[in-house]
Write a structure and sequence with these properties.
Layout (H helix, E strand, L loop, with lengths): L2 H22 L15 H19 L3 H49 L29
């Protein structure tokens, strides 16, 4: 392979990675380069389920099985909430925040204009020091 061919192939790979980053918002992973492979999340999920299945089949204690099933249900609910519920919840929270900010802006606009600050009782000239008046004994 000539140096020119090598550099052209390298530039094509960089451009492909950059386009993937622009389109998906994430860089290419090693599995993206292999056609027909599932995503990393799927592979990790199958591995974890396989480990739990192996432990479930191997373990004869009913209490331990129930504990593992509960852990799987909790993990599934957490993953479901993260991947499917978080975007919807974040969008709703953002909408509520926008509504609250709009209400605040409207409330500020509806306020009367602020009155000018009151005139000071005493104006000091440069070099003068203010002296407090002594009050009578108020005990």
């Amino acid at each position: 392979m000539k140096l020119v061919d090598f550099l052209e192939e390298r530039a094509k790979r960089r451009e492909r990675r950059f386009r993937a980053l622009l389109e998906t918002g994430r860089p290419l992973s090693p599995l993206d380069r292999l056609p027909g492979w599932p995503s990393e999340q799927f592979i990790i999920a199958v591995a974890i389920l396989g480990l739990f299945a192996g432990a479930y089949i191997d373990e004869a204690d009913k209490d331990t099985r129930n504990l593992m099933v509960g852990a799987l249900i909790a993990a599934f609910a957490g993953a479901w909430g993260y991947f499917l519920g978080s975007s919807n919840s974040a969008q709703k929270a953002g909408d509520r925040t926008d509504q609250a900010l709009a209400l605040g802006r409207d409330a500020v606009k509806a306020l009367p204009a602020p009155s000018p600050p009151p005139e000071p009782d005493v104006t000091l000239k440069p070099g003068e020091t203010a002296q407090a008046e002594e009050l009578g004994d108020s005990r």
